[in-house]
Give the backbone structure.
Amino acid sequence: MIQYLLNLSCIWLLSLLVFDLILAKERSHVFNRFYLLSTFILGLLLPLWSWQENATTYPTAFIMPVTQRASELKETIATNTITRQIVDMQTILLSIYFLGLLVTFLLVLREVIIVVNCYRKATRFKDGVWTIVETGKQHSPYSAIRYVFISNRTDYTNEQLRMILTHEEQHGHLLHFFDLLLMQLAKITFWFHPLVYMYAERLSIVHEYQADAAVDNSPNEYGQFLIEQAILQSAPTVAHSFNRSPIKKRIMMLTKPKSSISMLKALTMLPLLAICFLCFSKDGLALDKKTQKGDLVYFRGYTVEFKMSDSIPPDTTIVVDPETGEESIRITEVEPGLIPIKLNGDKIYNSRDIEKIAQEGKHYTYKPHLQIDELNMYLLDNLKPELHRLKDGDYYLRISPIILDKNGKIAYYNCDGVLTASYNHNIISPDQQARFIKTLEKALNNSPIYEPAAADKKHVPYIMDEYTWKLFTIKKGTITAIR
């Protein structure tokens, strides 16, 4: 979600900068309206789009025999420690978001009720396909769908009334109400995002430019009328108000000649689109690529700090003898190397850290076995479309390390793909392995959020250093057993 909001914000901000610097002062109102709507929608959708094939998640439908896992041979951590409920920051943020959403919705609903009440209590008469609503209250003219609201016909001369109707009817002919509806929904959903309000403001100004252009009175006469209406009360935000947009800008636009290079300026949309597609799609340039600077690795918005260690705990792998069918645990000595110690500046905890905290009688929670089972099944489900490429035999996944952040989301991983069991001599081609790694990385990037580890009453980053992958058997391209 953070990456989505970051990409969305970058698209909107870049698009608004281009609009303000290049397009806003041009009289190409039709294109400007299209530009604002299309870039706004582009910002909503493009961060969800991926260049790569999606890794499809399949429900676990196959039944498999399960034997006791190697990791279950280890002693489990004592469970007699006092457990306290930890307030999850994510839950707090979600509560704040939905509270803001509710408040914004109620404010918009209030505006709708104001318009409805004005309609119900007013005098109405038809003018072609339009309904003129006389409210009897002092306010500037405004329109909603095919209804034009004015205070009273007697407040205006016939010429002024004609200007009002021409202006407001233009909003209806151009279907501006649907733009307004889109922006109101966006304000409710993204009530916290200032760029949404900036988009709504600029789109409203373009709407007024288009409606003003339909009035055939002289700019001086029409401009004087706009100034007179500016002192009146504005309309509800769910309607188009005659005096809401900056009057000075509207008068200046009436007298501004159309530039001969305005359409050339519109071509700026092409490089803008290219930048957005390259940088701000779901798997754009930066966040899903690992960048290393010294002991720091930047990945998907996280910063992981490593250090050199002379001793790394040995790894374990379950292997099967193809002749006897017996399982055994093979211990693999790991060469000294870099190990992760911090995530975004916070200490990364491992099982030994949690055990120490438990021995001290402090509060802790973590569920590594459950997380391992869930993640194994999730990844194997995603791999199903690719597994038919494997020959019959025993295989396992190799993804190490896996680091969870404070919220239980996978923050960092190193994926080696699908490996053969030690007694299995089937060879996985480089092309096959590349497809496996691509699918696994896609699944890991979209992995569900797991229950985070907690140490001494606070959520902490956690490395799944006891990770033991299950062995799975392939027969005729299908998983027949997971052990």
